[in-house]
Design a protein that fits this description.
Elements: H1 4-18, E1 25-28, E2 43-49, E3 52-57, E4 61-66, E5 72-77, E6 89-95, E7 98-103, E8 107-112, H2 136-143, H3 153-157, H4 168-178, H5 191-209, H6 224-230, E9 252-256, E10 261-265
Antiparallel strand pairs: 1-6, 2-3, 3-4, 4-8, 5-7, 6-7, 9-10
Helix pairs in contact: 1-5, 2-5, 4-5
Amino acid sequence: MPEGDTLHRTAAGLRPVLLGRPVVAARARRPGPSVDGLVGRTVTAVEAVGKNLLIRFDDGRTMRTHLGMGGAWHRYRRGERWRRPAIRARLVLEVPDAVVVCFDAPTVELFDARAERLHPALAGLGPDLLGATFDLDAAVARLRAPALAGRAIAEVLLDQRVVAGIGNVYKSEVLFVAGVDPFVPVDELVPAVARAILETARRLLVENSQPGTPAWRRTTGRAPEAVLAVGGALWVYRRTGRPCRRCGTAIRSRSHGTPPRRTYWCPRCQRGPG
């Protein structure tokens, strides 16, 4: 599922074909934005912000997509066969040498960049864990804000207003690596543990967003060839009932929060607040 690392890899893949290129054709499925006015406009930036992909144009407008659970951006040569049916395309942008297609995204919108600071989905985002200017101290302060007292750390990590970029996979994996019980109230975490959780999250996201790394996530540290040979890319995610890779205890899982999301953890390796 698309999380911060996926969006940064996607942005990196789209920049070479879009940046500095004029749009020669554009179409969006209804309901969706009117994109006819993008023809003739030049792409000035392709950015990932948390779980959002932003494409900026020289007329001051910005295209935002959020991929939800199953959305994806593809790039193609002209005339190349698409890997998903055309009926699933939400947005198509053509430049002189390429076609980029956004499939199955629940959110596709075009707005004036001047309104971005007031945008309901962007203005309230916490520090981007993959941002070049990520401020760890500011992120720790948000994580330990009094308003969050009593909420489980697993739920708080998914709140994009606290930090941006973590989804359900990294939530479980980060807390396992940090040795933290996912249901510990966030106000019970001492500052050093809160800091370690966010440092771990940033490290894993950065490692999995680097160009040339496999498209599938690895959090166990195993080399790609070892994962392909014997498995073991993730510690706990989707491993309910299977033995912990570290201690052998059966991995547990349950849904919680609003909306409910499933969390995976090892009851032996994650006994307390870190």
